[in-house]
Amino acid sequence: MSSVQTYADEVARFATLQAATRSHRRHHGCNAYTFEDGAGLLALARAESAARILELGTAIGYTACILASATEQTQVDTIEGDPEHVALARNNIRDLGLDERVTVHSGDFFEVMADLNGPYDLAFFDGLGPTVRLIATLRNVLRPGGLLVCGNLAHAGTAERRSIAVEFEQSGRWQLAGSIEGGGTLAFRKINPGAPSPTGKSRKELFMTSDEEQIHALRTEWLEAAQSRDLDRIMETYYPGPDYLAYDVMPPFIFEGWETFRAHWKRFFEMFDRDPTFERADTKVHCSGDVAFTTGLTRFVGSIGGKAFDIWTRETLGYRKFEGNWRIIHDHVSVPIDLDTGIGITDFKL
Ligand SMILES: C[S@@+](CC[C@H](N)C(=O)[O-])C[C@H]1O[C@@H](n2cnc3c(N)ncnc32)[C@H](O)[C@@H]1O
Questions:
Q1: Domains detected in the chain
Q2: Does residue 126's CB lie within 6 angstroms of at least one atom of ligand 1?
Q3: What separation in angstroms does the CA of 122 have from each of 64, 148, 176?
Q4: Atom of ligand 1 nearest to the CA of 38
Q5: What is residue 1's predicted lDDT score, i.e. its pLDDT?
Q6: Cα 133 to ligand 1 centroid, rounded to whole Å
Q7: How far is the CA of 97 from the centre of ligand 1 (A)?
Q8: Contact 19 CB / ligand 1 (< 6 Å)
């Protein structure tokens, strides 16, 4: 079995399950978007002769069944967080006679992975947007030389996507091994530490090596999140945990810890009458190792309780790397003071 047509014929056995996934998603209104290149996925798993496979994102079982067809002995651990999907997947897999080969684990990816024993020959990520943290965790459960098949790369946030590109660019850790699903899903081989660096293939679309560029990307991510009042997205740009510190212009002026700052942003977003806009000027970036800072001016235009604001502030941000990604660990926002009146000046840039 080797031609693309042969794989397509083989995968046709699961076409009804794929159609059921599409129908389920329409009715359930969930994110169970079924994988669009079952033949390509089977070809990759078969070429690896993968005996142990880990899948993240079962939905109702379509790709788990394909992966289980890699060899006659293949065992698949697949993880799904939606209990309704888990129940449907278990039924579907049993109906196809694959329940001794596929184990559906119910729960969050990270929580379930903590209890699974690797090493796996192949890991397939088909959850929603991948993250660098997830990729690092999958690397740990892959055997040296194992294959990570990573879908939905285009669904990662802008900053995350660039960090992922940096991770995969490390030739001592990964080698691009192929692509399926029209390039939407890439396969990377885990490189043994100490193994000679592969020459690699073109990864132009993934390149983003300079720290300065990554920090600019993080700032763009922040701007887009702020302007759309996307709380989860903006909080992804901050350093998690108690070390985060903000000196803001708003009361209580000092915010310690990521959770405290999240509550502040939630309140702040709720105060706006409509989405605010931010503008930046004179940004300068300085990086060294895992620490960086930026200086510059930021304009905030918005309306709160019918009162319009258009103010410029001075902004100094500190950054540290968290699990390979730049995050804001400190920000200091201020306005100059008119020494005669003691009142802050907000139009100094205009
Ligand atoms: C794109 S669908 C998987 C499609 C499936 N592989 C197929 O081709 O039919 C993604 C699935 O991942 C699940 N999921 C997303 N994030 C998750 C998480 N953090 N933990 C567990 N399951 C998650 C969703 O509930 C959804 O069913």
A1: 4-206 (3.40.50.150), 211-344 (3.10.450.50)
A2: yes
A3: 12, 6, 14
A4: 8
A5: 42
A6: 17
A7: 22
A8: no
Q: Which atom of ligand 1 is nearest to the CA of 108?
A: 20
- For position 286, what pLDDT does the model report? 92
Task: Specify the pLDDT at position 215.
Answer: 86
Angle between helices 211-227 and 158-169 (to 10 degrees): 160
Q: Closest Cα to residue 295, out of 327, 319, 277, 276?
A: 319
Ligand 1 center–CA 246 separation, angstroms:
35
What mean pLDDT is predicted for residues 77-81?
Answer: 98
**287 Cα–ligand 1 center, Å:** 37
The strand order across the sheet containing 142-150 reads 102-106, 75-80, 52-56, 120-125, 142-150, 185-190, 174-180
Is residue 310 helix, strand or coil? strand
In which element (H, E) is residue 208 found?
none
From the CB of 89, is ligand 1 less than 6 Å away?
no
Please write the tens of the pLDDT for every residue from 245-288: 999 988 899 999 999 999 999 999 999 898 899 888 888 889 88
- The answer to whether 56 and 84 have CB atoms below 8 angstroms apart is no
Ligand 1 touching residue 32 (CB < 6 A):
yes
| The residue type at 10 | E
Q: What is the pLDDT of residues 191-240, one digit of tens each?
A: 875 544 343 433 333 433 477 777 887 888 898 889 999 999 999 999 99
What's the mean pLDDT when you consider all of the chain?
A: 88
Predicted TM-score (pTM) above 0.90: no
Ligand 1 center to residue 229 CA distance, Å? 26
Q: What is the distance, to the nearest Å, from the Cα of residue 78 to the centroid of all Cα atoms in its chain?
A: 19
Candidates 146, 172, 192; CA nearest to 44 is 146
